[in-house]
Amino acid sequence: MDWLQIIVLALLQGITEFLPVSSSAHLILPAQLTSWPDQGLAFDVAVHAGTLVAILAYFRAEVTGLFASAGTLIAERRIDSTLDLWMKVAVATLPVIIAGFIAKDFVESELRTVKVMAITTIVFGILLGLADRRLGTADSISWPVALVIGFSQVIALIPGTSRSGITMTAALFLGLSRTSGARFSMLLSIPTILGAALLITLDVLEQGLDIGLAHMAGGFLLSAISAFVAIRYFMLLVERTGMMPYVIYRLLLGTVLLLFFV
Hints:
Elements: H1 3-16, H2 23-33, H3 41-58, H4 60-76, H5 81-111, H6 114-132, H7 143-152, H8 163-173, H9 178-207, H10 213-241, H11 244-260
Helix pairs in contact: 1-2, 1-10, 3-9, 3-10, 4-5, 5-7, 5-9, 6-8, 6-11, 7-8, 8-9
């Protein structure tokens, strides 16, 4: 890879990871639509690690609060609201971990195509638009709601679906407000991204791939910075703008892919 490809891919990963537009599609498509070589698994690890650092930094109060809540559980045998939230995040993550382990090879060999990504980009964009029209107002996450959102993550194994997009769609259909749905979706991304990065790392170690440290460091830094900025502004604007800008983008992207690249 040259540095132009590194910069473009790192920025794409950082900006799209937490927006409902599918970061996986944006990482896969450049190599399929241009003469660029596939960026490789090692680079994927680096940019995923960058987005993980970004989300941990943004939700640092919630992350550090988990340790305080663990102390409360030990000292007082009481589950406070912070620990309750993280328990829901943990349980809601289990379905995608299990499904990802089972379906990983099939997804990589059969579903990483432009046609699949074009169709899922359009279909799940439409669903996101329909969900956004419900204008939910609920702020609390019940166990049934958390589990349904967690199971919806499994669909995001299909490239082009968007993990954040499908979880926000589920949250909105279940009556959550845009802010609450987006917040829970982003908290869910922490164990999901960590698990994905670990799986890719195992593949890197198993295959003995050559790793360019300078390229990885550049990708890591750019994805971390761009992801933090994207999260910050998305959370500030989500109630004002809703999901329609992302719905329109998905419909346009999917249509262009179907018309010119399939």
